[in-house]
Structure formats: structure tokens, C-alpha cells
Amino acid sequence: MIRVVGRQIMGDELVLQALGRYMDSHAYMDVSELISDFESKIRSEQSRTQRCVEFVETFRKKRDGDEAPDGGDGNAAKSEAVLEKEQVEIKERIQELEGECGWYLTQLEKIDEEEHKLEKLEQGYWREFYRLYDTYDRLGERSSSLVCQTDLLTGCRNALKQTNVLNDAFCIWYDGPFGIISGLRLGKLPEVAVEWSEINAAWGQVALLLATLARQVHFSFSKYRIIPMGSTSKLVKVGSENTRYELYCTGGFFKSSFNNAMVCILHCVQELGEYAEKTDRVMKLPYSIDGDKIGGLSVRTGSSDANWTRALKNFLTDLKWLVAWSTKRQRF
């Protein structure tokens, strides 16, 4: 009977060893403490069983000896009854411990099931995390690209704001005594033969530039309407479309229409200049205009060619200031 109980205790010890290995792999601190307590109880029962086994062996040796003490049978029977009672108690205790072990195993199974669920949740979390991180990374790259494009476009826009388109299209400068627009001289001198075709083409550029400036700043001339037509440009009196002034000359002595056209376009420059000075307090045309004169010189032919040429140079200077004013107006 004692050997049977011993084998049961050894079997429980193997179960405990298996549980120990299981707990080593799962690292649950509270359950490990319970198992440790359970092992201590098993070792205590094993110690009691071992003492019983040693006592029984000693008893058997004495009983089987040649010389048995008097009254030995009664003492042996009593000792054997005590051992059987202890064996019954040990078996009951072992059954209790087996029940506790079963409960612990059930709890471990539940814990293992919960752990499996948590692992699944963790895997799902990391999948979602990497998906969102990848999306965030791609959005970051897209955002950086858009920032670069925005900076580039802003730089282009600022550069365009600084660009004077009219000044590039209608370059006004000078060449000695001559005012020049788009590379065409305006005026003539006795010592410098400038063809009328060049002068007419220069007036055509003036007419186109002045009409473009007025349209750009939404200004309407009160007395004359400019009709840019290249070398044969004209001005029409507002309210009397049949009254036309030809802004070109073919030579000869009859230049009244041409002179009137130059006076009319000078009046247009004066009107636009007054409008510019009203809208911009720092704006002031460098050459004042009074009737047919600009800077004190008449734009009509008939006087000296030198004075006429100087008057037209002053005219182009005022026109260049109006171009600069329109560009400044657009920026702000």
C-alpha cells in the first residue's frame, strides 16, 4: 500500500514538473507562486511517506529476525494500524492536491486562451499601425513635394511681378538726341536722315503702348480714341467719329493732320498723367504738358527739327514714367 501511495506522489511530482515547465514558458507570477506552494506541500507529504516506509522496513526486519522481543506482535499490530491510518490520510491529501492541481490547470488553460486572444489583438494592432505609418509616410512625401512646388510657383509669381512686360515689349530709351521706342527713332535732324517710314512706325508703337496702358488701368480718354494701326495709326474725336487725325506723315508740305494727331496724343498722355498723379501721390511726370508743348517745346513740325526732336524725346520720357507707374500699380 505504501509503495502505491509513493508512486502516486511521484506521479503528482511529474505533473508538477510539467506545470513548472509550462509556467516557465508563460511567466505568470501569481500562478507560479501557487505552484511553488503546492510543491512544498507535496514534498512534506513525501517526507512523511518516506518515514513510514523506513519504519515499516525496520519493523519487518525485526519481525523476521530469529529473536523477537516479548509482546512484539501486539506492538507490531499497533504500529501497522497507525501506518495504515497515515496512509489513508496521505491518500486523502493527495486527492485534495490533485483537485487543486486540476483547478490550476483549468485556470492555466483560460489564461492561455486569453493570451491567444491578446496575441491576435496585438498582431491586428501592429498591422494597422504599419498601414497607417505607410500612409503617413506617403502623405509626408506628397506634402514635401507640394511645398517645393508651392515655393517654386511663388518664386515664379514674384519674379513675374517684378517683370515689366510693357517695358520689355515697348523698350523706350535714347540714342544721342533721339528718343527711341522699340528700336525706332522718333524725330529727325538735318545732319541725321531718319526716314518717315521709321518715324511712322515709332508713332505706331506709341499709339499701341498708350492704348494698352489705358486699358490696363481701366482708364478712358475723354476727347480722343486711339486706333493703333502700325505705321498708319489714327486718333478719332470722341462723339464725332468722322473727325480723324492721321498719326503718320508721308512727307511734303501739308502736315496739318499729322500735327493735329501729335497734339491729340500728347493730350492723351496729359490726361493719363493727371489720373496717375491723383492715384499715386509720389507720381509726377518729369515734363509738364501745356497745349501742344511738353517741357516748353512744341510737338508740331514747322519749327526747327532739333526742337521737334527734343520735344518728342521729352514725350517718350513721360510715356516711360507712365509705364513704370502702371507696373507699380499692378504689384500693389
From TrEMBL:
It comes from Mucochytrium quahogii. One of its GO terms (cellular component) is phosphatidylinositol 3-kinase complex, class III, type II. One of its GO terms (biological process) is cellular response to nitrogen starvation. Residues 80-124 form a coiled coil. Belongs to the beclin family. One of its GO terms (molecular function) is protein-macromolecule adaptor activity. Residues 160-327 form the Atg6 BARA domain. Keywords: Coiled coil. InterPro entries: Atg6/Beclin, Atg6/Beclin_C_sf, Atg6_BARA. The lineage of its organism: Eukaryota, Sar, Stramenopiles, Bigyra, Labyrinthulomycetes. This is Atg6 BARA domain-containing protein. Gene3D superfamilies: Autophagy protein 6/Beclin 1. The keyword Coiled coil applies.
